[in-house]
Amino acid sequence: MPTDIRPTTGQEALELLKEGNARYVDSLTSTDEYMQRRPELVKDQNPLAIILGCSDARVPVEIVFDQGLGDLFVIRVAGNVVAPSQIGSIEFAAEAFGTQLVVVLGHSKCGAVTACVETLINPDQNYSPNLQSIVDRIRPSVYNLHELATANGQDVDADELVDRSIRANVRMSVSQLRHGSRALEDLTNSGQLLVVGAEYDLETGKVRFLDS
């Protein structure tokens, strides 16, 4: 049960999670179809789609797509970037479960993409080495857009650049999944795997699927 009361310490947050799990366990005897499926998932899973999404707390993937327990194999990382661990996770799901759809899900007002745009507008911007590694993975999809935006010597509209960069970053991740893994490329070329990009709008709740 979500609450508007936010914890002021890590310990308070931990207690809220414990209370939430207790409510969840109590609900397992519910006649709700959502809960009745849980026992069959103990032995196996058969997700209908693999989602590579952003870690942003405002984009809960199962809720966004109105799916239940076991329906989605979800990998979340800031900026929905593609790195070896994400590729390996997707390869595992595609091969082990035969899941035939991968969706790279970006979203409006993405903090990771915004951070990347800020480094291009203000090169003196500094981040921790680990956050910088995420920014660096996003940078190739943003760089050309920034160069075009500054080519005429006018001031850059940062919000517009972020919006366009979010979609460019999704498309880059889609391309990396299609061509950065022999296993995924073979599945894609044989028609056994579809990899698509999408953007979730925080204001409307709508998911827009992008053309390749």
TrEMBL record:
It holds the Pfam family Pro_CA. Keywords: Metal-binding, Zinc. CDD domains: beta_CA_cladeC (cd03378). Its cofactor is Zn(2+). Binds 1 zinc ion per subunit. It comes from the Bacteria. The keyword Ubl conjugation does not apply. InterPro entries: Carbonic_anhydrase (IPR001765), Carbonic_anhydrase_sf (IPR036874). Belongs to the beta-class carbonic anhydrase family. Zn(2+) binds at C54, D56, H107, C110. The keyword Glycoprotein does not apply. This is Carbonic anhydrase. It comes from Psychrobacter piscatorii. GO terms for molecular function: carbonate dehydratase activity; zinc ion binding.
